[in-house]
Design a protein that fits this description.
- This protein is of the alpha+beta class.
- A two-stranded antiparallel sheet has the order 1-2. Strands 3-4 form a two-stranded parallel ribbon.
- The protein folds into 2 domains: 31 residues; 73 residues, no CATH class.
- The model has no long low-confidence stretch (mean pLDDT 77).
Length: 106
């Protein structure tokens, strides 16, 4: 009998926690911005192609393109190298242009 009561309390707690997490996820979706996508608890910067740290707040007045890539997929890897060449050409003419690569690996 006691075990049944404990299980009922635990399952109620688990359901409440699941709902809380769903609510947090929905709130995060509603409040998304470039800043919220790029900032993390570990820092407020992204790494450049050349591994330099770039403060996310530098993007405020720039046109930012997000590039999602999976490096284990050969076409993405090939495209990334071409994109880096394109970026270097465009960037030399247009200071307000940025590309942020977001790796899809876990």
């Amino acid at each position: 009998m006691l075990l049944c009561k404990v299980f009922k309390v635990l399952s109620t707690f688990a359901l409440a926690k699941i709902q809380e997490l769903k609510d947090l996820e929905e709130e995060a979706k509603r409040n998304q911005s470039l800043k919220s996508l790029l900032l993390s608890p570990s820092g407020d910067f992204v790494l450049s192609y050349y591994k330099n740290k770039i403060d996310v707040f530098e993007f405020k007045s720039k046109m930012v393109r997000l590039y999602f890539s999976l490096s284990s997929y050969e076409r993405c890897t090939n495209f990334t190298f071409g994109l880096a060449e394109f970026y270097d050409k465009v960037r030399s003419d247009e200071e307000s242009f940025e590309i942020v690569m977001i790796p899809l690996e876990e």
